[in-house]
Protein 1
Amino acid sequence: VFVEIRSASNPSMVLETKSALIQRDGDIVSSDGMSDLVFDLNEENYYVAVRHRNHLGVMSLFPVYLSASNPPLIDFTGTSTWGINAQIQLQSGLNALWCGNTNTDNQVIFQGNTNEPNQIFFKVLTDTGNGSLNTNFISKGYQIEDVDLDGETIYQGGNNDTNPVFFNVLSHPGNNLTNSNYIIVEQLP
């Protein structure tokens, strides 16, 4: 993940960034896999934003006091974030990032220009191991088109990466008419 510290007076101003690791339990730690993230900033209030390679980023709803001696716990799974419907609410009641931003344009689009399924399709079709140009080929590896993060990019067939994009778009609270061409837009300022 990528963590941004933003100005409390101007949340669109990014003051410092760090690459970090997200653990299986959802904790974010420094790139060594153990340490807390420490930023070279004065101890005061800041907005905190989190981004992920193929998810829409989120930011804390209010500025958070950051201190190196007493790092804050910011729980994005249960806390409101900046914007409207900036996170998906899971059946468990926890919040998560909207997945499916396979072309890094800060939107999730199922149908229309710059849609995510096209990215997935062409990743599978142009994989060097896919000599037969099969649309049901499974491309393996750490790839932005791997929407469900299982190490496999699948365009069609079981556990494909297009279905999460489709269902996110259809189920988004702002998509009142359940249009397949609805666009989920990242809510970061």
Protein 2
Amino acid sequence: MATRTVTASTRTAAAPDAVWALLDDVGSWSTWGAWEVSELVAPPGPDGLGAVRRLQSGRTTAVERVVASEPPRLLRYELLSGLPVRDYRASVEVVAEQDGGATITWSASFRGSLPFVGGAVRRRLDAFFADAVERLARAAESSSIR
């Protein structure tokens, strides 16, 4: 089955540190994102890696593990369960802009677990990621860290 990709990007007036503060605190995701539940299931190791997070949106509950964390610019994670896909790897990149703001890019790649599933998941994630980056950008702009 073909590898599918999803990418959404937006600019924010918020500084990269403000974006990172929200991104790094998975418990806050349900306050700015479309998740009803966002929680840490297993804490990260001393290098920030290995954190396991549970995110619920509607009937979908995803469990993810952080595989790279480079504050305030990069978060990478892999899906452990929750979607009918294989080899799901995602990243959120926060790039500082000269005006003090940032560009946020959320992307993922995966393969469908069954024929035709990959395309359906990609269509759903296209809208979900676009919404998530916009919400993250606006929440960072209203945070006290600017």
